[in-house]
Amino acid sequence: MKDLGIFGTAGHARELGDIACDLGYRVIYVARDQSELDAWSFPGEVMLESDLGRRSNMAYAIGIGENAIRQKVARRFADNLRFANLIHPSATFGQRQRDAIEIRQGIVVCAGVRFTNNIQVGDFAIFNRNATIGHDVIVEDFVHVAPGACISGNVHLARGCWIGAGAVVNQGSAAAKLMIGADTVIGSGSVVVNPCEQNAVYVGIPAKRIK
Questions:
Q1: Regarding the domain delimited by 2-84, which CATH topology (the fold level of the hierarchy) does it fall under?
Q2: What gap in Å lies between CA 125 and CA 142, rounded to an integer?
Q3: For the segment 186-196, what is each residue's pLDDT rounded down to a tens digit?
Q4: Distance separating alpha carbons of residues 87 and 177, to the nearest angstrom
Q5: What confidence tens digit (pLDDT) does each residue in 87-119 have?
Q6: Where are the domains of the chain?
Q7: Residue 43 pLDDT
Q8: CA-based radius of gyration for the chain
Q9: What's the rounded Cα separation, in Å, for the pair 154 and 199?
Q10: pLDDT tens digits for 12-64?
Q11: What does the chain look like in DSSP terms, one character per residue?
Q12: What burial class does residue 65 get, using C-beta atoms within 10 Å of its C-beta: 0-12 exposed, 13-18 middle, 19+ buried?
C-alpha cells in the first residue's frame, strides 16, 4: 500500500481521503500548524507541514477547495514534492479523455463526474461530485467546478475561476468559446449565457455581475 499525503484537515481534505482510500492509498493528512493538528478529531494519521522534509518521497494531494490557497500551497512545494491525480473509480470519460487528464498533476475528480471528449485540463483543478464537463472545453489551472455544476460544450474556464454548486454554463461555439474569466466566481444555481469578465462575481438566471 502506497502512502499519500493530503494537505488540509477540513471537509474537502477528508473527502479526498475517501477517494484515496478507494484507490488503495494509506492517507496521511498534513496540518498547517500545531493548532490545526490539535483540533483534528477524525480517524487517520496527521503530520505537521513542518515535517514534510522527512516524507518528501511520497505523493501528495491538496485537499483545499479555495483556489487561491491551493495555488499558494502548490507554488510553495512545486520543487520539492510530487503531486498525484485523484480520480474516483465512478468517474467516466469519453475517448482518450482520461489519458489527457492523467498527464497533468494535482487533478481531483470526485464521484460521479462525467467528462465527454476533447477537453483540455490544467493542473490542480477540482471537479467535484456529479459535475459534467462537455466537449471541447478548456479548463485552466486551479479551477474549481463545484458539485452538480454543468459545463456545456465549447466553454473556456480561465485560471482560478470557481463554478458554484448546481450552476450551468451554457454552450459556446467552436469559433468563440464562452469565457469565464480568471478568478471569477459563478454563484450556485446560476445559469451563464454570456461571457463573464475576470475577477468578478456573477449570480442569477441569467447570471449577472454583482461585484
A1: Rossmann fold (3.40.50)
A2: 5
A3: 999 999 999 99
A4: 26
A5: 999 999 999 999 999 999 999 999 999 999 999
A6: 2-84, 104-211
A7: 86
A8: 17
A9: 21
A10: 999 999 999 999 999 999 999 999 999 998 888 999 999 888 887 899 999 99
A11: -EEEEEE--SHHHHHHHHHHHHTTEEEEEEESSHHHHHT--SSSEEEEGGGGGGGTTSEEEE----HHHHHHHHHHTTTT-EE--EE-TT-B--TTHHHHHHTSSS-EE-TT-EE-SS-EE-TT-EE-TT-EE-TT-EE-TT-EE-TT-EE-SSEEE-TT-EE-TT-EE----SSSPEEE-TT-EE-TT-EE-S-B-SS-EEETTTTEE--
A12: buried
Sign of CA dihedral 176, 177, 178, 182: negative
Would the pTM of this model clear 0.85, i.e. be above it?
yes
- Write down the pLDDT at residue 56: 78
Q: Domain 104-211, what architecture? A: 3 Solenoid (2.160)
Cell of 87: 480520480
Buried b (16+ CB within 10 A) or exposed e, 163-194: bbbbbbbbebeeeebbbbbbbbbbbebbbbee
Q: What is the mean pLDDT of the chain?
A: 95
Query: Cα–Cα distance between 104 and 99 in angstroms, integer?
Result: 9
Q: What is the pLDDT of residue 201?
A: 98
